User: Fold these one by one.
Assistant:
Number 1:
Amino acid sequence: MSLEVALPVIIPLLTGTFCVMLWRHNVIQRVLSLVGSIALLASSIWLMVSVLREGHVVMYMGNWVAPYGITLVGDMLSAIMVVLTGMMAVAIAIFSLSSASKSHERFGYYPLMHLLLAGVAGSFLTGDIFNLFVWFEVMLIASFALLILGGERAQMEGAVKYVTLNLLSSAIFLSAIGLLYGITGTLNFADISVKLAAAEHTGMVDVIAVMFMISFGIKAAAFPLFFWLPASYHTGPVAVSALFAGLLTKVGVYALFRVFTLIFNQNPDFTHELLLWVAVGTMLTGVLGAAAQFEFRRILSFHIVSQIGYMILGLALFTPLAIIGGVFYIMHHIIVKTNLFLISGITHRLLGTYDLKRLGGMYKARPFLSILFLIPALSLAGIPPLSGFFAKFIIIKAGIEVEAWFVTFVALLVGLLTLYSMIKIWAEVFWKKLPEGIDPTPLKEGKTSGSLAVLYLPVVLLAACTLVIGLHGQPIYEWAEFSASQLLNPEGYIDAVLGGNRP
Amino acid sequence: MEPIMAIVVGLLYAAAIYMMLRRSIVKLVIGLMLLSNAANLLIFTSAGMSRGAPPLIPLGSALPDGPVADPLPQALILTAIVIAFGVLAFAVVLIHRAYNIIRTDNLDQMKDTDT
């Protein structure tokens, strides 16, 4: 029994259940939510320690040995993702203490949050493709409900698009699972990998690969399937958008990494070449879309899209260094992006709007917040010595090594345009004077107010993480290297899961 | 049997996509329903169909007599139906709420959050 693989799923499920039981006791729910998140982080660190020691941690549900039962597998990539999930859970739980409004809490904010976390952790840890579908749906249904908390017009419009495209993606995923089952007769990742390598490679396999690519591409908001993201992410409550921005699209990216290293690795000339062009389109359209925006959270939403491109680029180049870069980029991105959304929430708390034209004067009134914004913003653009610099550096170096000049050029250009967007936010929100006719009193008063300190705390913690990754990146790089070596040698994963049952 | 099922599945997908491309939000949800049914039938068909061979093991033996139908696809479809039911129930409530708030069922007029 390796309990540490199951705990990151069980803890949020239990926390969510207890929160439902205490439906009317909002204060207890808040405390429970924080405790549950810290427990999730602790269990994920336990998993990470085990994975670093053993390589793969496998648990067979109900002792049905693979490939017959559902398997939970923790390898280095899953462990990294689960630890990041735990960190985001804690950050959001602290932020929610002050940001969640009474009406949100009354309609099940905390139970939904933990159900979402259970779905995310389950997707990262499952070793079974149908089970991955089920966890996706758990995650989706929780995210649907969270997104429309508050029930404003924009939220409804955003939710209609979000729900439709995600259900479409699920239907494509389900069809692809059906066709894959028709070929291999199994659902276990490791077993599929073995059976597919042994089977004759036909055009059907490529078709299924592309179906998975489209389905996960919608979830990851890759070009040209990203339109639901900038239309919906900026509508929800701010803590919810921060959590979505950090984690949800990355589940799609994780699924792409898993499926296109473990299962569809026979024909990289076709599949990974296609991913390469998807990555280029994602980076470019995302960053150009952001350049046209004048709303804090919309700019950040478009930047999620463009950053997803870098991660897919790491996967598409398919060299050891590129995969390291992709994993490193995911780690850096989740922390930075969540942090930027949280900061947008603080400015919204202070001035009551996300519109850049109606914001201003923040640097004069809140210099500390301005520094806190600069750390993730410059990191996102890739300024040394912050985490984003090393993430971009590894991927671009990998691009140069395989002489993919055009792609490398696009990656560099997009970094520059990202800097442009971040400077735009800096100039409009922090640097320029507060526009005429906007009441400056909330900016100045309440300097020592307790509720603001609670909002600052997660932002400070995440900014510290960004600094640590940037200034002391060696262990993080080694983790990414370890996970890349596991991803590129699927034999280890297959042996760990199937054990003596290999055909 | 398979060719007929293949045509049925194809028709269901086509009908689903046609409905989803209409402007009305109600037709969008009908399209989503058809889509999930099409996916379920696709699993059923592609996993192989066999008649009159239930996967039952006779009393006293450890293995079934001769080849039997694969029970797993049916378990998958059952799970998928339950999930689709839950998600579509949410979608129906959502479009009802959306209609109450936005006062239109025309998707072309729901462009405020687009860019």
Number 2:
Amino acid sequence: MWSWVAHRVTGVAIFFFLLVHVLDTALVRVSPQAYNEVIGTYKNPVMGLGEAGLVAAIVFHALNGLRIILVDFWAKGPKYQRVMLWVVVGLWVLLMAGFLPVQLVHTFGSH
Amino acid sequence: MTTIAEPRSRATRKTSRTNAEMIGWIFMRASGVLLIVLIFGHLITNLITDGGVHAIDFGFVAGKWAQPIWQVWDLLMLWLAMVHGTNGVRTIINDYAERAGTRLVLKSLLYLAAVVIVVLGTLVIFTFNPCPPGAPADLLPSFCTA
């Protein structure tokens, strides 16, 4: 139930980011200056944490999506759906533990 | 007066030759698997390797789109993600917007936004000029001056 709610919430959040992200990337057609100025706002610490949240949402949505596919197509999927949710949570923690230090160094490290 | 169906009468349901909802259901799963590959690849090259988001500027994008593989990658990602996301939000609108009028307005806005974003994104990928005339040379990829 909660994995279903989280799948919807993360899906909507990712969708709205996608709309904005296509618009900001479209500025490469305006001028290099316009693009660099807007992409520069992605490099401040607040946006750095926002990117961490975005990646967290994407990784959950991806892993839980695979779980949904297994529940639907794998004969034993429905039986193991609860176990698979914990596998999703475990893999999510693992992947985020790998990504977060990299992202924090990029965000707060001195370049 | 409201007519109530006989008890145990067969439920009437509109059926059609093609089942659009089932095609959508299959599409969400097939595109989802492809999007995992496309988006994880996108995140690794743009957020993790070589300084992450700090390395991204006009020259970075131009360098990537000089390679056909990244043009195809980004185009496929744009289309699949937009159709996947639009279909997902459509489902959510159908579930939570109770009035028919509200659903119509929200879904019209959704489809309009989706078409605008897909057309805009596609045009940007196909009409992109990595060396726009008059731009400062230090903002451009190195192959522009070569």
